[in-house]
């Protein structure tokens, strides 16, 4: 079986991470054992804010789905009523959440396509949605992960999630293995800027990659490639990129500054220059 243990997703994408870290505790934990074939990592958010204080969390979209249990005084409005354990699919716009009160989120971040590979479902069913985990995953597992006593012990919750998901092992899946190879290439090779380049490298047609990505990820390969390069841009800016915006555009595959600015504004709501200067 091809190696599925290497990184197939980036931890980039949190906008102004230093500001968020002042108010919200974010932790990531590695997975262990066989479940790593489908799961990238565990993550958790915890916060306690004074009354009236609101912190806006803004995250660039990733080509991944998450399984979460979310408890708090102010549930996000996207959650299905009465459900604390949910699956959130790829969010094609920027993922914005207003954080207030107190809350705890424990999450499993799937590899791109991992949830579809585990369940045999097409990922289009949860793109831009948070849906009840019940119906996608076994009821017994969902009930276990919803138990407040277990949620209070994050390490035990992670172990239960890993055991339950590993039990769904569907066996060999060459198409999923191909998807992970392509995604890893997109993520690691910053010179890849067109789907045609990716298709040639992997000996497949663009149409084949489109079908593959739509089934497993829920969005097309172009969307994934552009998002990864935008993550590169934002990370470079956050790390103090000192060159011109034209240089930044060319480094990550945009034709010129104007094209980068158009895409940047569409996703982040501000220009690269203003984001760099931390102006609203």
TrEMBL record:
<protein>
    <submittedName>
        <fullName>Helix-turn-helix transcriptional regulator</fullName>
    </submittedName>
</protein>
<dbReference type="Pfam" id="PF20240">
    <property type="entry name" value="DUF6597"/>
</dbReference>
<dbReference type="InterPro" id="IPR009057">
    <property type="entry name" value="Homeodomain-like_sf"/>
</dbReference>
<dbReference type="Pfam" id="PF12833">
    <property type="entry name" value="HTH_18"/>
</dbReference>
<keyword id="KW-0804">Transcription</keyword>
<dbReference type="InterPro" id="IPR050204">
    <property type="entry name" value="AraC_XylS_family_regulators"/>
</dbReference>
<dbReference type="InterPro" id="IPR046532">
    <property type="entry name" value="DUF6597"/>
</dbReference>
<dbReference type="GO" id="GO:0043565">
    <property type="term" value="F:sequence-specific DNA binding"/>
</dbReference>
<feature type="domain" description="HTH araC/xylS-type">
    <location>
        <begin position="177"/>
        <end position="278"/>
    </location>
</feature>
<dbReference type="InterPro" id="IPR018060">
    <property type="entry name" value="HTH_AraC"/>
</dbReference>
<keyword id="KW-0805">Transcription regulation</keyword>
<dbReference type="GO" id="GO:0003700">
    <property type="term" value="F:DNA-binding transcription factor activity"/>
</dbReference>
<keyword id="KW-0238">DNA-binding</keyword>
